[in-house]
Write a structure and sequence with these properties.
InterPro entries: FAD-bd, FAD-dep_Monooxygenase_BioMet, FAD/NAD-bd_sf. This protein has a single domain (5-169), classed as FAD/NAD(P)-binding domain (3-Layer(bba) Sandwich). The chain contains five helices and 13 strands. It has helices spanning 13-24, 49-57, 91-95, 104-117, 164-170; strands at 5-9, 28-32, 44-47, 67-69, 72-76, 82-87, 100-103, 121-124, 129-133, 140-143, 148-150, 153-156, 174-176. The strands form four sheets. Strands 8-2-1-12 form a four-stranded parallel beta sheet. The relative contact order is 0.23. Residues 9-15, 32-35, 45-46, 128-129, 157-160, 163, 177 line the site of flavin-adenine dinucleotide (FAD). The site of flavin-adenine dinucleotide has 21 residues, from helix 1 and strand 3.
């Protein structure tokens, strides 16, 4: 496949990881994020081996992030009675990568650092997508500054309250959000 110009809307964990994955394959990525800076929201997040394996491959520095290694899952019922243990002590050798607990803000920080260091990725903060034009062969977005950006591929990683989803499922080819 030829190297694509890709726009990714949303720089959450999904958008940032997608940017790193595509750039690792030689595609040029512009990641558009509406917030000015990332808020320190969230708590501990589980980062299982399939995720750490790729992050490490893409040069995300998980070594210097404050973290715990997950030892397993313990299931208890609402009385606190112990039901089942699922140990993860062999996770690393079984799945080829460690199983971590990381604070969400620290994970985002590590991803953003890797994204900013990558020559094929441009991260544009304070850049809200306000409309989509999904017409082929030249899909495009408009952003809050009034600019019109086109790409070979547009990936909407705009979260659980995605406004792009309704455009895609409605069959409309353009959407103002
Ligand atoms: C309490 C809780 C615990 C969780 N625990 C875990 C866990 O242990 N392990 C795990 O893997 N997952 C966990 N999850 C789920 C995980 O947090 C989410 O699946 C993940 O953060 C979703 O990432 P995302 O990039 O899809 O969306 P988001 O993080 O929501 O990112 C979307 C981004 O898009 C931006 N955006 C939206 N619209 C536009 C627009 N028009 N223009 C530009 N930018 C836009 C937003 O500002 C946002 O930054 C948990 C979730 C919750 C709520
Ligand atoms: C993890 O990755 C392996 C190998 O790529 C795959 O077979 C497996 O289904 C993945 N596990 C999960 C939970 O996604």
């Amino acid at each position: 496949m030829k190297d694509l110009q890709v726009l990714i809307v949303g720089a959450g964990i999904g958008g940032l990881q997608t940017a790193l994955g595509l750039a690792a394959d030689g595609h040029t990525v512009t990641n558009l994020e509406s917030v000015k800076e990332f808020p320190e929201v969230g708590a501990g997040i589980r980062v299982p081996p399939n995720s750490t394996r790729l992050s490490l491959l893409w040069g995300v520095d998980l070594q210097s992030v404050l973290k715990e290694t997950s030892l397993g899952n313990r299931f208890v019922n609402w009385h606190g009675t112990h039901l089942l243990d699922c140990p993860f002590d062999d996770a690393h050798e079984r799945y080829g990568a460690p199983y971590y607990f990381i604070h969400r803000a620290d994970l985002i920080n590590a991803l953003v650092t890797a994204v900013k260091a990558h020559p094929l990725i441009t991260l544009r903060m304070n850049t809200a997508v306000i409309s989509y034009d999904l017409d082929l062969p030249c899909p495009a977005v408009s952003i809050s500054s009034g600019e019109h950006l086109t790409a070979d591929l547009i990936i909407c990683a705009d979260g659980i309250k995605s406004s792009a989803r309704s455009a895609l499922t409605s069959g409309k080819t353009s959407l103002r959000i």
